[in-house]
Amino acid sequence: MAEAYIVEAVRSPGGKRKGQFAGIHPADLAGDVLNGLLDRTGIDPAIVEDVIMGCVTQAGEQAFAFGRSAVLASNLPESCPAVTIDRQCGSSQQAVQFAAQAVMSGTQDVVIAAGAENMTRVPMFSNYLLHEKEGVGTGPWSERIKKKYGVEAFSQFEGAEAIARKYGFDRETLDRYALDSHLKAAAATAAGAFKNEIVPIAVEGHLVDTDEGIRAGATLEAIASVKLLQEGGVISAANASQICDGASAALIVSERALKQYGLTPLARIVNLTVTAGDPVIMLEEPIPATRKALARAGMTIDDMDLYEVNEAFASIPLAWLAGIGADPAKLNVNGGAIALGHPLGASGTKLMSTLIHALKARGKRYGLQTMCEGGGIANVTILEAL
């Protein structure tokens, strides 16, 4: 079977809500990261055959074929097509999988997978709540769906609480995990671990190259002081992912393109998997998805040198560790979304850039990335660093 290779994977630094990227249109933020990808690979922009752009909240400034707007805001030629996809938090990880499938099928040779979300300028749920603002319709779930599952709405927050109860995680366990995320991210930043993956973004005449949400001085006491989101629950804003403005991108090519354009790959894609399960508990799906991906690849979790599991809520990677029997020392080694932010549609290629560069920095070979997603879906991608 034909192979798919990742030549480069980059991301913007993360911006806090109303923070360093609050004044940047999301198309421009995405365009800047696309330009950074082009610059680092040195390819002729004219050879890019498609851009697959993940974006969850396709409303306002992220509406009207947002991927195309990102291309028009970049140095790619206007002849380069684009498409915008929504697989919730896994949107840009799915973009990588679609790009890889195009390359592996021989349909295309050079494709960019990307994602962007400016959550300050296009708030989460602003498209989902349109029926309330306009007084039209009843929202995304029909009465048939509500009756089928016995719910009025599907809630990721409720799913995260349910997973914490199922696996017996108390508040302190989640808070300690959150603290560790901040400490790892702060240490990685201080060591320059993100230098090769971050594209600096120009903001008011100066370049921003540092993730804004990391709390280097975080303490367990400070995290524990944050109000719980539900009385009697264990989830707080401090042990959940941060709202974040950001963009990310990866260049996916065929073996033919490597030879034709003299490109050196960072990684080879070993396996692409997507599964779906219970839409109510929702966020537990990375566990069966990981099992399926490893089985299809003929590998075990012990073959993986590092893994990135999105920290949508602290209960998710903790449940994944327990369900898979994985080594905590290999998980999110440079911190995760609790410290670095979760820019929704950008998080897939964001985590992939971190995983690839972490593997390369450590001289390691195999990495696994998985993402819990709205509706009970999960993506898993296995990579081999080259």
UniProtKB/TrEMBL annotation:
The keyword Acyltransferase applies. Residues 5-255 form the Thiolase N-terminal domain. Keywords: Acyltransferase, Transferase. Residues 263-384 form the Thiolase C-terminal domain. PROSITE patterns: THIOLASE_2 (PS00737). It comes from the Bacteria. Pfam families: Thiolase_C (PF02803), Thiolase_N (PF00108). The keyword Cell division does not apply. Gene3D superfamilies: 3.40.47.10. Belongs to the thiolase-like superfamily. Thiolase family. NCBIfam families: AcCoA-C-Actrans, PRK06504.1. This is Acetyl-CoA C-acetyltransferase. It comes from Sphingomonas naphthae. The lineage of its organism: Bacteria, Pseudomonadati, Pseudomonadota, Alphaproteobacteria, Sphingomonadales.
